[in-house]
Amino acid sequence: IGGKPNINKNLLKVAIGTIKESRLMRFQPFNEYRKRFHLKPYTSFRELTDDENMVATLEELYGDIDALEFFPGLLVEKTYPGSIFGQSMIEMGAPFSLKGLLGNPICSPEYWKPSTFGGASGFQIVNTASLQKLVCLNVERCPYVAFQTPDLGEAEGSEEKTRPSTEL
């Protein structure tokens, strides 16, 4: 998913629209977002990606790593070893994705029933879903997939360790 030019031709209009919209919204360059999330900014396109053709293209288009736009940066960033995403996608995107899932009303008891998911078959699919299935059904190879949360007693700086945080 990351580190390679991999946008399906049917989604190219969406990618172009995303870049145009980010320019209209005056998004900061990719490295500025990395700094905001306490990630080390890249010093060169070669550090960002191992693909020499991509390095040459980025140098021609942007000239300087600090001019690279956010969305293209996310797409061409080399992946973690054994991962399908680059560091920026994982560190910037994952926390917001998880908060979005947990804050969704579909997670409430009133919605958690077969009729919400199209009947018993749909409910069975949802109840047997896993992160590994989600990833492996959507990529060519099936990498190791894991997720863990710290024990309440391990939470650093936590004054109240008996109840989970209410922060979304």
UniProtKB/TrEMBL annotation:
Annotated SUPFAM superfamilies = Heme-dependent peroxidases
Q: Name one Pfam family in it.
A: An_peroxidase
- GO molecular-function term, one example from the UniProt record: metal ion binding
One GO BP annotation is: response to oxidative stress
Entry-linked PROSITE patterns: PEROXIDASE_3 (PS50292)
The record's Gene Ontology cellular component field reads: cytoplasm; endomembrane system; neuron projection
Please tell me whether the keyword Glycoprotein is annotated for this protein: yes
This protein's record includes keyword Signal: yes
Name used for this protein in its record: Prostaglandin G/H synthase 1-like
